[in-house]
Amino acid sequence: MTSPTPEAAPAPARRSKITPERERQFYEAVLDQLREDGYEALTMEGIAARASCGKSTLYRQWKTKPQLVAAALRADRRGTLAAVDTGTLAGDLREAAMIAACTSGRDTRLTQALGHAVLSDEELKAALREAIVEPELAAFDAIVDRAVARGELAAGHPAVEFLPAQLMGVVRIRPVLDGRYADAEYLVRFVDACLLPALGVSPHTDPAPAQPAGPAAPAAPAQPAGPEPAPGP
Hints:
- It is a single chain.
- The protein is an all-alpha fold.
- 59% of the residues lie in helices and 0% in strands.
- It is elongated, with a radius of gyration of 31 Å.
- The model is unreliable at 1-14 and 207-221 (pLDDT under 50).
C-alpha cells in the first residue's frame, strides 16, 4: 500500500509591486479623505474607491489603516530635520522653523484631523511615532548634541526637553489664536524671541565672517627739521 502523496504547502502570498506614481495616488487618496472626513470616517473601502483599486491591494501593501495613514503622512512631508546642519544652534533652529513652515497649512489640517484619534487609537499612535515622531526627535537630539560639542549650549540644559513641543505646538496653535497658519517669518521670530533665549543663547551670536587683512599702510615720510633758533644776544 502506497502512502498518500502529501499536499503541497500553499505558496506564501506575494507582495505586489506598485510603481511610485501609483503609490502617490494611494497616498493622495488617504490624505484627501483625512482632510475631508477625519480619521474615524476614513476606511480602506473609501480609499480603494477613490484610488480606483481593490481593497485587497491596500491590505497587501500596508496591512492596516494606521500603517497606511502613517506612510502617507511620511511621504507627504517636504523637508526633514535630519538634513539640518548650518554650523550654529541658532542657524539650525531657524532652519527647522522654516521646514515646519513649508508644510504648516497642510500638516496643521491633518494634525487636527488626527488629534482625537491619536489619543484613543494605540496602533495609530505607534505607527505615527515610528514613521514621523521618532525620526524628528532624533534630529532635534542631533542638533542639540552638535551645539553642546561646539560649546554653544550647556549639556543637560533644562529647556532642551521642551524644544520639540514648543516649535511643533506653535505651528498647531497659531491658526486657533490668530486665524492664520504659522509661516516662516513668524516661526523664525519665535525661535529668536523664545527658543534661543530659553536656551541662554543670543539670537545675534552667529560668528561674523573674518575680514581679510589689507596691505599695511606705508610709513609717513620723515619731515625735515626746521631751522635752529638764532642764539640770543
